[in-house]
Amino acid sequence: MLRTSDDGxxxxxxxxxxxxxxxxxxxxxxxxxxxxxxxxxLGAGAALSGLVAAVPQIVWLSEHKGWxxxxxTVLMAAGxxxxxxxxxxxxxxxxxxxxxxxxxxxxxxxxxxxSLVLLIVGALFAFVLPWLMA
Length: 134
Known about the structure:
The protein contains 5 helices and no strands. It is mostly helical. The chain has one domain (19-133).
């Protein structure tokens, strides 16, 4: 069964949305764990104290880092599955629309890759480095 161009565009939008949601989730892992750990590692405890005073929700995020990383990992897996499924989704035949479709597909893959790197960095700071330091 051949997909119509509307189906392909809907899948492409879904893939781009999942990439941006993955970026948002992986950024949350940085806020909860990587940035505070980096500030302490650099000797900027006062900056961390000021950050926690300005945004006290960071403490809640740090206390619930297991859930945050769990949700982020599920979102990343879903985003990766959508990226894989849409890797060969049809684009329109019109050259201008086809170029836009291919550009969106490439950007979606780049955003997903950046999200994956952010998630890994956050996991290193949240789980691996404390285990190595103990």
